[in-house]
């Protein structure tokens, strides 16, 4: 019996021939990157608060009466009487406070809060957010925010000019909100897992279900996943499985994704994004620009001496038309690289390529969806 030795490169080639699915999985994406857990959704929080400590850049209390009312109510709750006289201080600003409550958050953990001015404050830089309760859509208080406000923009103003960069009427309070209440539902109380695709597609949904079922047959002896539609995949929890460990195993499985062919065009910025699956049938393209230049050169005509004539103006207009380009090129794109090379060979700018792609789509030769932004 003879023995054979294979070099390292030959072993890799042989492995690719014997197990082609290994290469497909290596080129795929993890389920955690293409789908999210329905039970792991975020929740929006909102609140109304005051920012103090501003250096004369807060709300003018006459133009923003709600700021004055809120400040008086806060001082009364602290046991300070506000009888007699109206304050003209401009170091207070009323703000809306928003935050996002992450899934499975526990009381005591911290999240970021965003503040946005409600009145006529010019800057929130250097201010401090006073204790503000943040409520959810159900009206319950889930977090309390307080802390120093970080503003990225700045505003410099003089007597004759001013300079502003960025937005000075909104900012963030990093880790400024403390979670006080957890969500009613718990992850391990769920009967099944619902995976939601970030880019809905029937092919990808079926592939996720098949991949999960292949894992479940090896681990539990029966399939557990079913693709409900192009966006949702339902995974039933086996009796002997731990839900958290099951989700950890599923989200690391790799799936080869698929997506419809699209061409996204932003005419305002001249951006063109062509998907990998875009195909173009053979078509002839001619692109040329017409430039028309109109020049007015009026001439003054003086009368002869002692002729008793009048000075007149003689109008003269020169019109010149120039054409650039106009060559005919064959464009055919069996793959993305060939399509891009064919468009570049025409020698036009992005705005011209946008017009060409729109024309190819109208001619029925662009086998993709054209999305205009």
TrEMBL record:
Gene Ontology CC terms: bacterial-type flagellum basal body, distal rod, P ring; outer membrane-bounded periplasmic space
Pfam families on file: FlgI
Entry annotated with the keyword Transmembrane: no
Highest taxon listed in the record's lineage: Bacteria
Any GO MF annotation of the entry: structural molecule activity
InterPro entries per record: Flag_FlgI
Biological process per Gene Ontology, one example term: bacterial-type flagellum-dependent cell motility
TM region(s), chain numbering: none
Residues spanning the signal sequence: 1-26
Location relative to the cell: Bacterial flagellum basal body
Main location (coarse class): other
Keyword terms: Bacterial flagellum, Cell projection, Cilium, Flagellum, Periplasm, Signal
Similarity remark: Belongs to the FlgI family.
Purpose: Assembles around the rod to form the L-ring and probably protects the motor/basal body from shearing forces during rotation.
Assembly and interaction partners: The basal body constitutes a major portion of the flagellar organelle and consists of four rings (L,P,S, and M) mounted on a central rod.
Name listed for the protein in its UniProt record: Flagellar P-ring protein
Organism from which the protein derives: Ciceribacter naphthalenivorans
Gene it is expressed from: flgI
